[in-house]
Amino acid sequence: MSGISFQTLCRVSGLPEPVAEYRFAPPRRWRFDWAFIEQRIAVEVEGGVFLKGGGRHTRGAGFRNDVEKYGEAAAMGWRVFRVLPEQLVTPMVVDWLTRAMPARTVIREGT
Description:
The chain has helices spanning about 5-10, 60-75, 90-100, and strands at about 20-25, 30-35, 40-45, 80-85.
């Protein structure tokens, strides 16, 4: 599915349109890469995982900050899907999101 954006994939899959870089816990500066605000579902793209020396998400302070961010998100009722960049625009992620959404949210053909 290369060449298609995440927003386009969601639209053609019958999912609501996600909001990019959604700030979910003001005054904290935390943002979700993608958020379905009404459904309280987020998608976080964990980049740099396979870089030599690790990326921000896998090194000490960055990992610690992510643990705090995801813990706060869970306490606020968010479900967070963590994916690698190459997984973002795949049927697997569409399936996860479709199953996580309340039935009335997903637009299925013929309904």
